[in-house]
Write a structure and sequence with these properties.
This protein is of the alpha/beta class. The strands form 5 sheets. The chain has a 7-stranded mixed beta sheet with strand order 4-10-9-8-7-5-6, sandwiched between helices. It has a 4-stranded antiparallel beta sheet with strand order 13-14-17-16, covered by helices on one side. A two-stranded antiparallel sheet has the order 1-2. α2 packs across α9 and α11 crosses α13. It is globular and about 75 Å long.
Length: 412
Amino acid sequence: MNVASMTINPSLDTARADFPILNQEVAGKPLVYLDNAATTQKPKAVLEAMQHYYLWDNANVHRGVHTLSQRATMAFDEARLKVQRFINAKLPEEIIFVRGTTEAINLVAQTMGKRLVPGDEVVISALEHHANIVPWQMLREERGIVLRVLPIDDTGQVCLDQLPALLGQRTRLVAVGHVSNALGTVVPVKTIIEMAHSQGIPVLVDGAQAIPHLPVDVQGLDCDFYAFSGHKAYGPTGIGALYGKKTWLESLPPWQGGGDMIRSVSFEKTTYSEPPAKFEAGTPHIAGAIGMGVALDYLETMGMAAIAAHDEMLCRYAADRLAEVPGLRLIGTAADKSAVVSFVMEGVHSHDIGTILNSEGVAVRAGHHCAMPVMERFCVAATTRASFGLYNTMADVDALVVALGKVRHLFR
């Protein structure tokens, strides 16, 4: 089933019509969905593609000779090609299907980690989501590695000038987020990659928050690994992708053992398949891969450059409007931001803000956003986060500001 055969409005101005879930009321008010950094809504094209698979093509992929299995395999393999094209990977076998960004990072940590010895170092930044902190801490406990952290400044941007001091002869990997989920900061990952590569150090990029907002070219970035999740990019949950340069994927050991990742098995010895199969043990999330592929088609139809400009415009407009709210303070004011505004209000807990906004039909996220070190850096326990998608408008930002007026009234 081709995305071109489905109902798509090829314009951001009319995209909202592609998302049925947005056409509802919450607490008697039209839904204003501003929690896209947690998960995006799904266009009809994605839902139709997944339904089509389950209605007509439901079968396991690979090795099946019957018609349903062949159709399922074709759709599954096509989804890999769509991911390859979307991020401009050189080869389809450089794309590994995983459950999401978290699993992708853990895959790299646990396979590469088998080579590390006590004293080896991994560099991350102080902006990271817990998914790009905890796996390396676990590796520190298991292997005795050293975790070094690139600090951030008062705007929420990484202190790039301090990176050279963190890179040394024992540095085995740099792992950084492309866009901060907590602040929206766009990290200069290309510069970081160039600095690391100048010393022969590979780089993993957490692209969960970048993929739905920015054009991503892994060959242009020259990153060694790039991870992202389908559900952040208008696709289904439980599916994502890890890009890895072919040379890295060939050199790393398998992660999990089971069916579909082997070449031959005997009780004496098992030999493994080449990537990507080597890292995809067991039955994959077939419908999820198909749905993610259609979601990426959808983004391409809209145009990533247009989406990036739209998100930047909304982010700037929101920052300007929120600055008008008395007692409100923005957290994260980097010059280069995408699709996220985080803030605190004097005398009001973020959870109370989120609850009151919900009573006005406005959905936001309240808490530490799985980025507790970021909260600690700005001396706050939590923030309220409004995050934008391609279907959001300036009217949604205006509705947020009006709803915050109710918060001020109740807590005046």
